[in-house]
Amino acid sequence: MGRYDRNMNMLSKEENERLRSFKVCVVGCGGLGGYVIEMLGRLGIGHITAVDKDAFEESNLNRQILSNVNNLGQYKALEAKRRMETVNPDVVVDSIIAEFNDKNAEGILKGHNLVIDALDNIQSRLMLQDICEKLNIPLIHGAIAGWYGQVTTILPGDRTLNYIYKNKVQRGIEKDLGNPSFTPALVASIQVSEALKVLLGRGDLLRKEVLYIDTYTQEYHKVRFD
Fold first, then answer.
1. CB of 190 closer than 8 Å to CB of 211
2. pLDDT-based confidence at residue 166 (cuts at 50, 70, 90)
3. pTM of this prediction?
């Protein structure tokens, strides 16, 4: 248990052992998803499903923790599995190298305790919300763009993304603002903290509200959707 000793002041021994029983699906293994998988694995989540169709490119090196100069051209989902084999081999990582779409989404997500959104387009996020609701699975949403980020926790029936993306635009502002190294790490850490609370059933959730993060001014504020 020495691996998790530093968790014990915030988690009980029983809670830490429970983490082994959970199965979490991370949809997207890039900027957000790579950090999410890293943190989930170090916490000791027993089973992680990593979903991504893409391979690493040079432009990923500025922010994606799973990327390095030696694995350019390698599939991101497969690298997530390889990474966790060196970080915490007790964690089972299933790599799914496929485009996440309405044809395979239900089959991929079924059987998970929680889903984490690390996608990079609005249409797919809205579809992900629909499938999670259908399967009665909680969803942790995160998005990043330049200095900015947002996080919300969506329980089945909340439909919070309908409020955030009420105009249903196809293009997110990250295409214009880009993404540095620090924003995905910060947003991913908040997503994982929300995931831990959902799985253990404790703490206040970012439910029916979104946390907006501005690292340029270091302002953080929440907007409720009732």
1. yes
2. confident
3. 0.94
